[in-house]
Amino acid sequence: MYRLLKARIIERVYVPGQRIVIDQIAKELETSSIPVREAIRQLESERLIFYKQNVGPVVAEVNESDYSDTLRVLAVLEGYATVLSAQRFPGNKIKQLKVHNKLMEEALEEFDIIKYSKLNTAFHQMIWEECNNNYLMESIKDTTSRLDSIRGVGSTLYSIRVKESIKEHEEIISLLENGSDFPELEQLSRQHKIKTAEDFERRRLKQT
Hints:
Blueprint (H helix, E strand, L loop, with lengths): L1 H9 L11 H7 L4 H13 L3 E4 L3 E4 L6 H21 L4 H19 L3 H16 L5 H15 L12 H18 L3 H26 L1
Antiparallel strand pairs: 1-2
């Protein structure tokens, strides 16, 4: 239930400001209101939903100016996590990363941005989940959840930046595979996210 409602918010099935009618969702999914309420409480803790007086649960409004700041924080977290992961990165995962990157390229060719986004998240998770630092991993998850609440129509995922991102993934894979020096890997991983933030900032300026 939680994953379904979160996906609907991220993919803009439920748009910012929209009221979430618990009984209606429960009826649609042929379940009781209890799991719906539990999912909403979890989404509220992630700031994707808030309770409005005399209205009930509502999809949170998103301030897109937060996107860049949040992404830059994620750049630092993932950069460090990538270096930690590289110290013990499993060889069998290299092949998985290459497959994921290829699937992302195919999704882009099909203009399936939602699929691309999910594959991109999975690609990076396969790297940082090997860092062996639980607090760091939880921090990355929380920061990624915040980004998920911002993504949608008008976000960086709809720019030419995604094509460059695939090429940068190939470079990250190569460094992980060949056991390059850690400072170079951390810099590449960090810049990978920062370039996306910079691209987003440029696009926002053109729209103002």
